[in-house]
Amino acid sequence: MQRMLVNLLGSIKTEFLNFSHSEKFYFVLGAIAIGAVIPLFLSEYVVGEVLTTMIIFALYASSWNLLAYSGQGSLGHAAFLGIGGFASALLAIKLSVPPLFGLFLGSLFSAAIGLLIGLACVRLKAWFLAMVTFGFSVIIVTLISQFDAIMGGIMGFPTPLLVERGLAFYYMTFALVAASIFVMYLVMKSKMGLAFRAIHENELEAKMIGIDTAKYRLLAFVLSTFFAGLAGGLFAQSIRYIQVSVFDPYYSFLPLMMAVIGGLRTMEGPIIGSVIIVSIDSFLPRIDPILQGLMGPLFPSISNVGPPLRLLSLGLFLVIVVIFFPKGVTSLLHKVYSYFRTNEKKVDNNDGN
Amino acid sequence: MVNKKLLAAIVIVIVIVAASAAVWQLMLVPSEQTVKIGLVACYDKAEGQDMDRAAKMAVKEINDAGGVYVADLDAYLKIELVIADTEDDSPGKAVSPVTRAILEDGVDLLVGGYTSSGTLADQVVAIENRVPYIITGASSSLVTRRGPQGNYGGLPEGDPLRIADAEGMSYMFHYCTTTYDYSKTVANFFADSMKPLLDSTYGFAASRELRLAIIYRDDAFGKGVVADTKSIIANNNLPIDVVIERSYPTTATNFQTDLTAIKDAKPDAVYVVDFIAGTAEIIKQGQRDVGLNTVYIAVECCEDPQFYTLLGTYGDKQLLESKFAPYAGPPFYLPIIGTYVTTYQQTYDTLPGMMGADTYDAFYIAKDAIERAGTLDKAAVRDALESTAMDQLLIITETGKIEFSTGATYHEIAPVTFVEQLVWNENVGECRSVIVYPATAPGVPTLKQADFVLPTGYQPGSP
Amino acid sequence: MITISGLIETLLWGVANGCIYILLATGLNIIFGVMKLVNFAHGQLLMIGAYVAFAAVTAFGLNAYVAILVAIVAVALIGAGLERLTFRRVLGTDKLNEIFVSLGLIYVIENIAVLLWGNKYKQIQSPFQGLRLSLGEVSIGYDRLLAISVVIVILVALFILIKKTKIGLAMRATSQKSETSMLMGVNIEKVYIFTFALGAALAAAAGALYGIIFPFYPGIGALPTIKAFAIIILGGLGSIPGAVIGGLLYGIAENTAVYFLGGIWQDAIAFALLIIVLVIRPTGLFGEKGE
Fold first, then answer.
1. Could you tell me if B202 and B285 lie in one domain?
2. Are residues B85 and B192 in the same domain?
3. Are residues B145 and B76 in the same domain?
4. C281: DSSP letter
5. Domains contained in chain B, number
6. For residues C229 and A135, is the Cβ–Cβ distance under 8 A?
7. Is B91 in CB contact (< 8 Å) with chain A?
8. Who has greater pLDDT, A204 or B98?
9. Distance CA C245, CA B188 (A)
10. Is B45 a member of any domain?
11. Can you state the angle between helices A306-324 and A288-295, rounded to 10 degrees?
């Protein structure tokens, strides 16, 4: 046991040192710096609503992405978002568990349910799994509605706060999310991560090499749902309310859209996707009155063309990305970056060495 | 190692982002001072759009007449309407627009709210930020009673819906009926008006109880009505027997099977508890598809043009509990109704609905409160709201005045509701309505316009 | 208070609903059997079918049942377009890509419908509205009976198409082994477009019938898709008889459950069944065909 811990710490240290020599390290450092500093420049609303939401959904999308690394595409992740939210809120309210502890217990509970669902999905092919996970997220709404007394039924209930909203909540969320994503990074760098990738690439071959695909698929499920549950607990805190609408299919599609648009199966993809989509949802409503003025007459059946136009654009965006940029926005960013780098090299070489 | 160009690029990006953020902030500064009132409405639904139209009409009327007089600025300020579109009014979607309206747009006051769960969630932001909120929707009385002043609405200790912040709760005002209000009218109508008619038409014994079926949407609203109806029947010993209850998920559109089960229970009447779309479907499907030829009664949130359009001929002789009846006239039971309906129709080429009427009144209540407070300071406006004593507007009240109570029914009004019967009108190709119960109301000497009659082809329940 | 007449009516309702599910599930199965493609936006094609039929009736005054043909043709074309523009490009790549594309299409199709027609409920007016056939205590609307008849006609036509025509032969060949059929000179691309259009046409027919019996709005596509998937998993992937029997049984089961337990369980029954079956038999009740 102790040796395992020492090995673990040792490998974390090696990983960290390796990473710190790569260029990505500076990007990550830069991102963390921006994340830490930007709230001081922005209004309370933007920080509290927009940035916090971006970060929470970055975690949520990353959790979905983690599962996708192993080739399992869940269409019902909202179930775990909701389970995490309800569990952590209920623990805090009914059993007076301190909220921070409640967050973790909620995530563990979500992971436990994830284990059960994962067991059911272990041998399922891609779209069977999608169906079952989606089905689960629907059934859970019916189940919860039956337990009104505890779950607050369709009305839901407010969540007890961990920290006051605003800057403090933002930093706490930022820290939790950054830590979680770091853990996911470590997982992907480890043997487990390799196994995930192998399973996704060719499950049959993976089995032939001797990888226990069932075990690793389950592990992916448990880890993914743990973090989805954590995101759920944070989400419940951020909107200060938990209610069955959190299980809507929309919340199952969101992490998928974010991860795919940002860059499927990359660490930075879900984060980029979250930033993009939350920005669209938060800032674009401002131009709704203008849109209504321009396009209202074209579409007389609705009073506010904004929301359907936004959703339509998201759908279109997803389709275009999948067809033309299957590696997501992040691949575009990489191309831009390497364009600058190659120009560097040319200049450096010309300097003579 | 790290090259300088990359570092420079990162720094430039940070600078650009920070600069844009600063510019964005600056852009939010308004040009001329106005009274900012936020409208919390769900534009996904017909009711939300009705609220939007009514709100814009009220704002235009007030602004055209000069605006709102604010004494400590010694000026007439125009009202600026800030829209907080809650889309489908689920808590996940309702909180954000309201937060934006309060923190970004800096509204002085909020009007609106539609569903109970959406409003219970979005009002928290207003409570914490001490923004007066005139809630014109949300049938749950918890919106004002969940705090100390309302004895926490009877919620048990430790229930998360309880709010201890008395100061914050004092900013909440409920200008709407509650599920109790309308269930009371419906139950009394059945006992006082329908049962005698049934007894005399079919020769039933006076001891026979009226057989009532309730079909309701499975949420706080639906369940609330069922609970309230049963307790009213019990507490007042009304001769009504709830023979069957069926509920369905809020997203359902097909009710045929549930209606078949209700048909099996042989009721005298069916109480439908849902919003416009669901209720219209139930009434249509019941008659057209299942052959359940009874009388259906809908609740007041269906009082909207879309309801009449959706029902078509199937609405003939059906009942609607309401507190605002734009279809029962002309002539109307109150002159102000006539004026409102005519103006609305001329402006928007459609008849108004109930949610809009509440909203319209609320803007005038807000104007009255601000003018009496003499300032835009929210605490003063709150105090002025609490001491409102205006003459009733579109909604009839038990005292003829608009007053917010300060007792355990905290910050509520005492509205009068009535029952209308729809009548098919060949000329307009839609149903119109007549008020059938009760006979009078405060400030309205003749409320009842016609007697209640049983629908053609009506079949009573089994004796 | 459960009466025999109530039960019989519930059963008949179930058969009518089941017929709509049959069309949807069959369309899905055909697409899957031939193209190995998963179209999560199938329910949205049903929805568009309903709206097209509605538009045909209100704008051109067509009979509701004639409008079914209009819907079939229009949506078949839309389906062909979708296949050519989007699905074609992701076939052969990561399986998940097909799912992603169809998810994106769900939002696109649904919101186009919202923009064009709004959120209010609509229903297609049938000339037989309100007319009922009565046999003693039991009565059933004419529209319900017509729906069942229409579905039978369509299934017969489908059977003829698949068993007796050249394109049907090509489809069957492709569903068995696409490489072999390519070697034999079958134009795979043409088969794919035709198959998808056919599946879409069946969905549109389901939608046009749905629109006569039930009220609809842009969001109704989601649940039928799930139910259709549940049916084809239970009935066996790629198996048309399975889809027919499964659809019928599912409609009856769903309605009976609602009659006894109440509307709340309407949708959950599907998934409960689904999850149970998948856990016990990951390949479905009748096993897979050609996967």
1. yes
2. no
3. yes
4. -
5. 2
6. no
7. yes
8. B98
9. 51
10. yes
11. 90
- Beta-strand relationship, B133-135 and B172-174: parallel
Is B154 inside any structural domain?
A: yes
Q: List the one residue out of B343, B353, B347 whose CA is nearest residue B49.
A: B353
Pairwise CA distance, residues C216 & C124, whole Å:
9
Q: Are strands B430-437 and B295-298 parallel, antiparallel or unpaired?
A: unpaired
- My answer on whether B193 and B147 are in the same domain is no
**Residue B419 phi, psi dihedral angles, 5° rounding:** -115, 130
Query: Measured between beta carbons, which residues in chain B are less than 8 angstroms from residue C214?
Result: 253-254
**Which residue is closest to A94 within chain B, CA to CA?**
B158
Interface test with B, best of A86, A302, A303 (most B CBs within 10 A): A303
The predicted-structure confidence for C204-245, as pLDDT tens digits, reads as follows 999 999 998 888 888 888 888 878 888 887 777 777 888 888
Structural domain contains residue B71: yes
The yes-or-no verdict on residue C291 having pLDDT over 50 is no
3-state secondary structure B348-379: HCCCCCHHHHHHHHHHHHHHHHHHHHCCCCHH
Are B290 and B424 within one domain? yes
Do residues A72 and A217 lie in contact, with contact meaning Cβ atoms separated by under 8 Å? Answer: yes
CA A167 to mean position of chain CA atoms: 21
Q: Which of A121, A124, A125, A127 to mutate to test the interface with C (most CBs of C within 10 A)?
A: A127
Extract the tokens encoding A273: 């996707």
Q: Note the ipTM here.
A: 0.84
Site from C95, C100, C232 to mutate, A interface, most A CB atoms within 10 angstroms: C100
* Whether B397 and B421 share a structural domain: no
Name all domains of chain A by residue range, CATH numbers in brackets: 10-41 (no CATH), 42-292+301-343 (1.10.3470)
CB contact under 8 A, A45 and B159: no
Put simply, the answer to whether B246 touches C262 (Cβ < 8 Å) is yes
Query: B273 pLDDT band (50/70/90 cuts)?
Result: very high
Rounded mean pLDDT of chain B? 87
pLDDT, tens digit, for every residue of B246-256?
A: 988 877 778 88
CATH number at residue B355: 3.40.50.2300
Q: Are residues B81 and B199 in the same domain?
A: no
Tell me: do B253 and B123 sit in the same domain.
no
3-state per-residue secondary structure call for A298-339: HCCCCCCCHHHHHHHHHHHHHHHHHHHCCCCHHHHHHHHHHH
| C-alpha to C-alpha distance for A42 and B23, rounded to whole angstroms | 10
- In Å, how far is A317's CA from the nearest CA of chain B? 22
**Is a pLDDT exceeding 70 seen at residue B6?**
no
Would you place residue B1 in the very low, low, confident or very high pLDDT band (cuts 50, 70, 90)? very low
> pLDDT value at position C289?
39
Q: Tokens 């919101």, residue? A: C111
Interface check for A260 against chain C (CB to CB < 8 A): the answer is yes
CA distance A230 to A31: 22
Give the model confidence (pLDDT) of C81-125 as tens digits: 999 888 888 887 777 888 899 889 999 999 999 999 887 778 888
Dihedral (C-alpha) A197, A199, A205, A206: value to the nearest 10 degrees? 90
- Amino acid occupying residue A105: L
Those chains having 3 or more beta-carbon pairs within 8 angstroms of chain C are A, B
Please give the residue range of the domain that contains residue B314: 179-323+417-437
As given in the structure block, the two tokens for residue A318 are 């997803």
**Closest Cβ–Cβ partner in C1, C141, C220 for B289:** C141
Residue B232 lies in a domain: yes
How close B3 comes to chain A (CA, Å)? 9
The pTM assigned to this predicted structure is 0.81
Stated as kind and residue range, the H or E segment containing C222 is helix C222-235
d(CA C57, CA C78): 19
Residue B339 or residue A351, greater confidence: B339
What is the residue type of A251?
Y
Confidence (pLDDT) at A1: 62
Query: What is the gyration radius of the CA atoms in chain B, in angstroms?
Result: 24
